[in-house]
Amino acid sequence: MTGRRLLVHAIFLTIAPVIVAWFGLSVAAAILLVLLLLLWRWLVVLSGLMAPAKAPAVVLSTIAASHFVEKVRWCMDRLGLEYVEQPAGGALGVFFLGRTVPQLKLRTGAVQSTIGNSAEILRYLWGRYAFEDRDRAAFLEPTAERLALEERLDRYGVNLQVWVYYHLLDDRELTLHAWGAGDGATPRWQRLALKALFPLLRVLIRRAFRISEARYVKAVENIENLLAEAEEKLAGGGRCLLGAGEPDFTDLQFAAMSGLWLMPPEYGGGKADAVRIEKEAAPAAMRADIDRWSGAYPAAVSHVATLYREHRMTT
């Protein structure tokens, strides 16, 4: 409730100059209006401290198809955490609210904390839950070797974003589908906004990711270099990217990133089914890339499939 009141306050604050001009208010009346708005703002904040709104303790803000979201979502599911997922529509958040996903929101009494970026969220999860059960959280331990690989896998994820948008942006319906415009879990007003603002969002995406033929070629080169390295590590039948033992968060991350193009049935743990793009529906050039990678890197593909089949809990 407090959030809604603050939103209403922000709207009135924005239109306050219009009110002053429309009604020809005096300077004294305008000052009084500003003071009333400031009083309202203070009362809203005070009400949030005295009677905090009831809200889930842990909320994960997401875009259903995001591979960076899947990286965090999978780790939280493996920890067995109870949380509420708050899906948003495609690129609306980043371009109109300056808010990227994933974001982890934590409520303790009247205090709400927000952590952004997948790497920072995983560091929080390790610090928070290793204290309670170190064995359960062991796969999240941030060793130097794991952190170095995570950084490279994050770049792999960014290159895959370029690859996806290069292939999809010219297809309005497929892009809207991937953004959740047809997903009932996406707020209705956001679904409508995605459709209405699609031409503008497409331009913004092209500029933000510098989508071009040259950029696509470079992204594919980087993707294939990473896949070739993973193939070399896994070709001997290894269970992990970093050697023996049980898969850690870097293996889950590699699977989550690669799941963007492999789209295994378990992708998203049941929370991305409505935004799936099956291979048969993808553009021909996109299918050609997928077929080439699937044929060239069988051990890496098998590793991803095994991780999803054996370690991805569905809801």
List the keywords:
315 residues; globular; alpha+beta
Summarize the structure.
The chain has helices at 2-23, 27-50, 67-79, 92-97, 118-129, 144-168, 172-179, 188-209, 213-234, 249-262, 284-296, 298-311, and strands spanning 58-62, 84-87, 103-108, 111-116.
Q: Given the helix and strand composition, which structural class is it?
A: alpha+beta
Helix content: 55-70%
Query: What average pLDDT do the residues reach?
Result: 91
Which sequence of SSEs, written as H and E, runs from N to C? Answer: HHEHEHEEHHHHHHHH
User: Which ranges are low-confidence, i.e. pLDDT below 50, for 5 or more consecutive residues?
Assistant: none
Radius of gyration: 23 Å
Quote the distance from N terminus to C terminus. 29 Å
The strand count comes to: 4
Number of helices: 12
Task: Tell me the strand order in the biggest sheet.
Answer: 2-1-3-4
Q: Beta fraction of the residues?
A: 5-15%
**Tell me about the biggest sheet?**
4 strands, mixed
Query: What is the overall shape?
Result: globular
